[in-house]
Each structure stands twice: as C-alpha cells, then as structure tokens.
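Protein: tRNA (guanine(37)-N1)-methyltransferase
Species: Ailuropoda melanoleuca
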Amino acid sequence: MRILWRPFGFSRILFKVENYRICESEPLTSLAWASQLQKLSRAPGIFLLDQSKRFSTMPEIETDPRDSELFSPPSNVRGMTKLDRTAFKKTVTIPVLKVRKEIVNKLMRSLKRSALQRPGIKRVIEDPEDEESRLIMLDPYKIFTDDSFERAELSILKQLNVNPQISKYNLELTYENFKSEEILKAVLPEGQDVTSGFSRVGHIAHLNLRDHQLPFKHLIGQVMIDKNPGITSAVNKINNIDNTYRNFQMEVLSGEENMMTKVRENSYAYEFDFSKVYWNPRLSTEHSRITELLKPGDVLFDVFAGVGPFAIPVAKKNCTVFANDLNPESHKWLLHNCKLNKVDQKVKVFNLDGKDFLQGPVRKELMQQLGPLSKERKHSVHIVMNLPAKAIEFLSVFKSLLDGPPCSTELLPIVHCYSFSKDPNPAQDVQQRAGAVLGISLEACSSVHPVRNVAPNKEMLCITFRIPAAVLYKNQTPNLENHDDPPLKRQRTDE
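Structure follows.
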C-alpha cells in the first residue's frame, strides 16, 4: 500500500478562508464549539500554492455513501482467469482527521464507528507535514462532513481539543487491501454467484464450485489461499461422494498438493489423508450433540465411524466403543487417531461392511448386554449410523437380529440414524422411510433432529428411536401401526 498526498483543484489559486485555531490551553465552551462547527462547515476548501505540501482540508468529501464501488477493485479485472495482483491498484479519496499523537490511543477507542476498517490498512498514519501529529483514516461511508460525527464523538473531540475539521486523503489500494469476496465479485461475470466460503480442513480449503465458476477455478483457489492465513492448498470436489468409501475425487486448484492434514475439533486431534477419507467440519456441532447424550459407562456402536469424530470423544467419557468403517484408509486413521487421543484401550476397531458389523460384533455384544443379566445393567446402548445417503437401508438388519426372550424396554438400544431428505416435510419423510424399512410406524416414538442444510431443498437429519423388541427379537409380532414405546424426548444439549 502506498500513501499519496496530492493537491486538489488548481494549485495556483488560493481561496480566501477564515483561519480557525484550537488551542489546547483554551477549552471551548459548548456555545463556542457549536459556532466553530457551523463556521467550519461553511468554509470552502484550502488549496496550497506550495507543491511540496500535499495536504488539503475540506469540509465535505465528494463521496456518495451509497457508492458501493469506492472499495471495489478496478473494472478492468473483470473476466481475469489468471491472477494478476498488480492489476488491482486503485486510488480512492477518503476523509482523515488530524490529531496530536499523544491522544491517538485514547481517541481511537471513541472513534471505532467512524474509523476506516480495511484489510492491510493502518487506521493511524504519520502526518508528513507535522511529526507531532497523526492522521486518523475515517470511513467515507460514515463521515462526509464535520457534521457526520455523532454527538458522543463530538463530545470526546471537544474534551481532547481536537478540531473536527476533516481533510482529503488520497489512498492507493492494492490487491492486499481487498477482501476475497470483493475480488471475486469484480472478476467473475457480473450478476453471477460468487464463492467466498469453503470448508477448512487443516491447511486445506475445500471448495465446491459451480459450473459457471470453473473457468476461474485456479484464480479462485489462489485468492482463497492469499486471503486466509494458514491455508496453503485449495481443492475442488469434482464428483459426488462415493457411497462405498465416502470419499470423492478432488482437483488441486492452487497451492501445495499435500493432502495429509491435521485438524482439531472439540478439543480432539485428528490426522488423515483428506483425499482418501471422509471428513466434514460442518458436523462438529452434531458430533458434540451425540457425545453429550452418552454417560460414562454407556456403550456406543459406531457403524460408519470414519476417522473417529464420534468414537473418540465418546471414549473419552469412559464409554465402551465399537467403531467400524469399510474404507481401509479410514480404518487405518481411526486406529491412529485413537492412539493419538489416548483412547485406544477403550475403542475396538473393525474394518467391515456395515451390515457385517451389525450382524457380527454388534449382535454378539448385544446378546451379552441384553441377556439374562441385563436387569442389573444401568448403562445405555447407542448405535450411530452416519451414512446419510444409505443408512436407512441398513435398518433392515435389526429385524429379528437377536434370539431369546426380549429384554425390558428401557434397556433396548437407541439408534441415531442419519439421512438426507428433499421432501417438503423432511422430518416426516425420514420417519416414514425408516419405519417402512423396519415394518413399523415411528412417527409417535421417535425424534428427528435437523443437522444442516446440505443444498437448496436438501436437508440432513438424524432420527433417534429405541429399537422395538418386536423388531429386534425373533418370533415377535410387530405392530405395523405403532408400538407401545413412548416417544424419545429430544435431549437438551449445549450446542
């Protein structure tokens, strides 16, 4: 950023103005202060004959507060596909306030509303004409004349004997001074959607670009890296998530190609190769919500565990965890992250298809947990199924999964099953589809929690219910209309 002082108007013409001086030793009375403001607001601009002096005062900045183009990049960057940072230079005129350097800190606390806030721009700079003074850059959308200051601001200016007269200042903006959304809005074709958001996965910015943004993909990636400290790689998803291993193909748009990353979520650390496993930072709150539902001593079966965002926090609560994932890479990093977070002794890890996991290790453990001695058991059993695209289909595995006499209702496993829905009534849609797979009605005995909006008209939800004994045990007759279990209350958690 370069600071430019330039004369305004004709440098050889001097307009006659009254000269007002505010002395530190002579505090102004309220009446004198008001009179001073009125006179200053009527004073024409001062133009200097000496070309070496590049400072001009003015009572009014020639800036329309509705002019959103003031801090927009130059128009000639429109359509740029290869980033040229030098093309973003632009000079703007902004208001400044001259103050004594010893009162700057105290004054800035009272001028937060009025001070300029732009990336990479100092709000207080040296006065090239007076080493004992400083110039405070003001927001041109808020300060147009001396009268633009609010009453509280004028009061502090009066207390500190600061002349409220504002002055012109020529400020050269560069690429560093524009925000990412401003750059992309200026570059992309006018009227098209601008991508300025992304999912952050360690040092990686994960974008999901639309078709009209693809010609600008490399520029967009570089801007994301430039404008977000710590981001060194930008990638774009180029296909849908593979339902088998829950990963997707990605293209490196800009930056390094290293996809090995480390993230922290809810005080836990996870390491993995982002190109080979599933990780969604937007599910952080949901991971916490489910974790809060379990108490020490409870048992969790995580059918589609990924790299451990449900399993590890739950294990830290002194729960017993059985975690499974079909993806060999996820299985590898799940084992690694359990050791990293020191819960490897509390988590049993499997690399099986979800159906095989339910019919094998889960069934075996449930037979023990819900057996004849289950009446003495006080802990709960939870089953998490976070595979929104297909998890509901896996509910059929619970039908007649167990042998023997049913356990008491309060000991039956609680399922948290995730699903997508494009239905106008997504909660009812998920309840009906899950109930259809189980062969019962879940509408009166389940709760549905909205997780997040995935896309326009597409929601991700979690349906929670206790598996009815009539479904879970063999030789039972399920009631297709309903069953006698009371609906699960939506448990309150700190989100």
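Remarks: The first strand starts at residue 2 and ends at 4.
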